[in-house]
Amino acid sequence: MSEINVTPFVDVMLVLLIIFMVTAPMMVQGVDIELPRTKTTTVKTAEDSLVLTINKERQVYINRLPIELKDLKKKLIRLMEARAKKELLFRADEQVPYGMVMEVMAEVRAAGIKQLGMITQPLEPDRDRR
């Protein structure tokens, strides 16, 4: 036989494709929250931006790592020391009270972060008529 049999190669590639299709949705970074919906524009950010999250149980996270609110300022100062661009993306579940959001934002400002981006969901067309 002078031909190369590619059937095993195709089988392996199809199995790998299925594995990647199943695992790709699980690799999304972040904490599961319900973002408020607003009419906003998209802002370009660096891929390695820090994301500060508050979930509906009022737990605070930096990227995926939980952190106590009392330690937030110190942790942000340490994280921002090594960064040239001192920006932070902020997202909070829509059920989080406004006072809690403002308390966290005050800690962010106290840490010296001047660029704070708010992450929201776009309005749905039928919800736009409020």
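Above is the first protein from milestone M3; the second protein from the same milestone is given next.
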Amino acid sequence: MKRAGIGALVTALVIVLGMRLSAQVTADGRDGRDHDDRSFSFALIGDMPYGAEGDAKFPNVIADINADRNLSFAVHDGDIKNGSSLCSDEMYFNRLDLFNQFRRPLVYVPGDNEWTDCHRANNGAYDPLERLAFLRSLFFSTERSLGRQTMRLRRQSTDPDYAAYRENVRWSTHGVLFVGLHVVGSNNNLGRTPEADAEYAERNAANLVWLQESFARARSDRSRAVMIVIQANPGFDSPASERTGFNDFLVALEAETLAFGRPVVLVHGDSHYFRIDKPMIATTSGRRVELFTRVETFGENDNHWLHVTVDRRNPNVFTFDQRIVTANLVPH
């Protein structure tokens, strides 16, 4: 074959390969591979870095995740600092720089420590709503993820009725739908001030719409499973009177999970207790919902991560593997 012919063939192959790779992760919930049985993997982290210890340990987490070249992306489920440190501009820029050190795409879902709790004196007595606006402008300014390599995300803000909610996202990979929702600790910002209550009401309404729309997309696309990522522990075991900021979300989550009829995973951080369990009890039957799984990520001083494998041939779809970062282990 002539040299020119070889060059044309290589170019064509590169274009085809690029088209195939770009189809694997899409922002609109359709990946065109409803019958694709191939597996993929990704990383889950949250509640880090926290304080001086976390600042020292978090680079080891990044390095450990970057060393796994088979990962498709990573997700941080919120709280990028502890609840007793400054909400300064410098802190946000530092975290953005750290997130962009991830080799693969990094999807970040906000937590309460980075805005709702910023009114505290030891946080700098900031206006939480001003900090939220700054957070949105810095971390969610484009239609793509963070990280050295980025991927396109579908943001709720593409709907003019919800233009403020750039942090609510979804994407699909090999027939599995991922949803990021801005549901935070500190009772989801409800019950502190009238201004906070108003913010909660508007964001809660947006969250419910995004959750329902995402499940509708999952059903129409025949998605094999859905993973929802929030920051807050919504208090499955708490009385409704003690979780007023989460009751609407939990009611909608139960209804959508039962209607979907396939595996649903809720990922969160917040209470710094690594666990994988099945805490959803159906309201009508009083029975445990077996298709629903809750995953709480490592966090605070436990700076480790979860390796998640997705295999459409597995009835459970998701397999979770603890990745203990040995450099972060504390001698006892």
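Note on the second protein: The two ends are 66 Å apart (CA to CA).
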